[in-house]
Amino acid sequence: MSLLEVKDLQVRVEEREILHGLSLTVNPGQVHAIMGPNGSGKSTLSHVIAGKPGYEVTGGQILFKGEDLLEMEPNERAARGVFLAFQYPVEIPGVTTWNFLHAALNAQRKARGEEEISSPAFLKKVREVAKSLNIPQDMLKRGVNVGFSGGEKKRNEILQMALFEPAVCILDEMDSGLDIDALRIAADGVNALRSPERAMVVITHYQRLLNYIVPDVVHVMSKGRVVKSGGKELALELEESGYAQFEDAA
Amino acid sequence: MNVVAKTETGRALGDAFAVVRDRLPGKGKIADQRRAAFEAYERAGLPHRRIEDWKYTDLRVLMREVLPLAPAPDVAALSRAAAAVKAHGIDDAVRLVLVDGAFAPDLSDLGKLEKGLSIRALREVLDGGDGALSEQAFTSDTTNPMIALNSAMATDGVVIEVANGTVLGKPLHVVHVASGAAPVAMFTRSLLRLGRDTGATLVESYLAAEGAKAYQAHDGLVVAIGDNARLDHVRFVEDTVDAFNISSATVTLGAHAHFNTFGMTTGGHVSRYELTVACAGEHSKVETNGVNLINGKQHADTTLFMDHAVPNCASREIFRAVVDDRAHSVFQGRIIVRPDAQKTDAKMMTRALLLSDDAEADNKPELEIFADDVTCGHGATTGALDESLLFYMRARGLPEKEAQALLIQAFVGEAIETIASDALREVAIATARRWLEARA
């Protein structure tokens, strides 16, 4: 069974249709890249998969391990293993990263009928992960993302990804706002999480990120549809010729 | 119709005052003061929305009448109260309990008081003829009808004195309990006098015994903080949801003094807390902070009046209201900087969080500045929880109510953090958490 299956998805925002019948099948172990110009609906797709309010699904479906994802609350989706790394991670003043991660992890475990993780066990786990991502301990004591640089925010997203061990990770424009060094650290973090059971969907505007996170499949989106799919060489082709050739195809 | 009803209510209370007058403590000058205060109250009646200070808390609509004076508590009342007090204990505090407006020595910790600490019942002070102390306890204006009524009717209270140079190790915990036999009104007046170079922590709790009927708690606190003294004050209003709590505190500070006060209201059907702080000596510091967490049809009003009369004092006000269902929160904060009060540094920030479409919050910050070399500022915001934050948290697996609870805790946390004592801060955090758990 495929891990994530998007079938003929149609989505509206305030009366305007953004996705006009988008289909996508992601199997375990695969890394898919979704590329496309601004306004092609890439971020909308990621938001709808995660369950962000404000989108109206007017047709099609999204199956996750064969279950109807659209029927689930965002927190239920997370507990089952869907993870969205935000393009712009929000700042949550007054809620320490440490507390937030502990509460979120326990909420997920509780939803799955697993035992809650104790503070010492959690501390040990989060410290290990933070170390591997070069995240200093004091960042965990600060408010979630408060005063973090762009690179730190993205690393914090990857820290959460590593901690929650999701089945599918959607990375929404992970490269935006990152310099080349920050990008490399973030990409290394993502690559370390690649596994035969886990799938990733990397949404990006630029080919550059795909030098670091090498995809198995590349999709080109335009005007709310996937207009072309291919291997990793498709990304290089796009870098050469741009998106204009696909505008008509849509 | 309305007028007739009001007159009848007024007459009933007038008769009640005539009846109880002779059993109220304090003769001579105090008795005269009580009579004058009652007349002042009678002239004004219950405050209503056409009086600016009571614009958002119209007691003629919300309270309608003053209930009859509570009888002195009997054995059964004291035992019901004891159980309630036990459930709201503060670790290692000197507990002072008032039941139905009467000091209850048997429920209070009067043995082995720290050196330099004196505690007496107000009734004892008034009847004992300590003129200066009695007058200080009754120092308050008659322009506020509810404070005037409190002066007229106060049956008891505690009078606490801390001698010069004494820094108390244990907090003082004044617990106001309604024993709840019948719908009655309780009137208490307490005095705290801190001498020079002293330090004390005062905690006040307002609560009821299990199964209490609708009641009215009318309380007045008078505080005098001496030169170079520090008072930490924390107040918890945990009355039942049909109760009325109409309270005031009048605080004066000497020079180089420090007053840190925090109020938390989670209980009461209608509550009004009027805090007046006057800096009378230079280089003093005042921190007045608070949190209201209310739901259902609760109405909670916090009204602050910060009076800077002398130069070089600083005041900070941080207030947070969390309002759910059809509840109504009111915050009025007035800072006056008088002509001589140069170099005053006064800041006030009030924020309200509305958790439902029917919730209401009125924030009214006011600055009146008559000096030219000052730093003053205020801000007020009202809004809902940030949807983008909620989505982020839910996308990480937190159910909606849990995500909201974390954000609400963070919202009130900024005010709770100002409590100096770790133990009392924990009590405030636990109180907020209980409120949030009841909501989930």
What does this structure look like?
The complex is a heterodimer of chains A (250) and B (440). Chain A has 250 residues and is α/β, with parallel strands linked by helices. Chain A has ten helices and twelve strands. The mean pLDDT of chain A is 92. In chain B, the strands form two sheets. A ten-stranded mixed sheet of chain B has the order 2-1-5-7-9-11-13-15-17-19. Chain B has a domain at 2-281. In chain B, helix 2 (28-44) runs antiparallel to helix 7 and helix 9 (400-416) packs antiparallel against helix 10 (422-439). Chain B has ten helices and 19 strands. Residues 1-6 of chain B have low confidence and may be disordered. With 440 residues, chain B is of the alpha/beta class.
Give a topology summary.
The complex is a heterodimer of chains A (250) and B (440).
Chain A: E1 4-13, E2 16-26, E3 31-35, H1 42-50, E4 56-64, E5 67-68, H2 74-80, E6 82-85, E7 92-96, H3 97-111, H4 119-132, H5 137-141, E8 143-144, H6 150-164, E9 168-172, H7 180-192, E10 199-204, H8 209-212, E11 217-222, E12 225-230, H9 233-241, H10 244-249
Parallel strand pairs in A: 3-10, 3-11, 6-9, 9-10
Antiparallel strand pairs in A: 1-2, 1-4, 4-5, 7-8, 11-12
Helix pairs in contact in A: 2-3, 6-7
Chain B: H1 2-20, H2 28-44, H3 59-62, H4 75-87, E1 94-99, E2 102-103, E3 117-121, H5 122-128, H6 131-137, H7 145-153, E4 158-162, E5 172-178, E6 185-194, E7 199-208, E8 216-225, E9 230-237, E10 244-253, E11 258-265, E12 270-279, E13 285-294, E14 299-308, E15 314-323, E16 328-337, E17 345-354, E18 360-369, E19 375-383, H8 387-395, H9 400-416, H10 422-439
Parallel strand pairs in B: 1-5, 4-6, 5-7, 6-8, 7-9, 8-10, 9-11, 10-12, 11-13, 12-14, 13-15, 14-16, 15-17, 16-18, 17-19
Antiparallel strand pairs in B: 1-2, 3-4
Helix pairs in contact in B: 2-7, 9-10
